[in-house]
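F.,

This is the one I mentioned.
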């Protein structure tokens, strides 16, 4: 896509992407989580959703254009299959946190 401004391309990608998780910081189990995915049919879609939520949180400090090109370390991405086996859910895990 030569000649298309990065901001335009990012907006297009967000428009066609599946509904992503809410971008929120959550303190759970002593670790900070950057939002998380809703349940998705497969692990890949759930991971994409969680990474998108993480990027939206990062955009507040890094800027949207830079955050759109960022990826969390693979050790930070945690995915689980639903106990009912009806889908997958993922979270991007950050550092330690304390509920206050």
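My design for it:
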């Amino acid at each position: 896509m030569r000649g298309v401004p990065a901001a335009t391309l990012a907006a297009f990608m967000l428009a066609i992407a599946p509904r992503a998780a809410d971008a929120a910081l959550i303190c759970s189990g002593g670790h900070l989580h950057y939002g998380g995915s809703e349940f998705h049919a497969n692990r890949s879609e759930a991971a994409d959703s969680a990474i998108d939520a993480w990027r939206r949180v990062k955009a507040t400090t890094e800027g949207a254009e830079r955050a759109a090109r960022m990826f969390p370390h693979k050790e930070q991405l945690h995915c689980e299959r639903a106990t009912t086996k009806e889908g997958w859910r993922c979270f991007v895990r950050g550092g330690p946190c304390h509920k206050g």
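The longest strand covers residues 88-96.

Talk soon.
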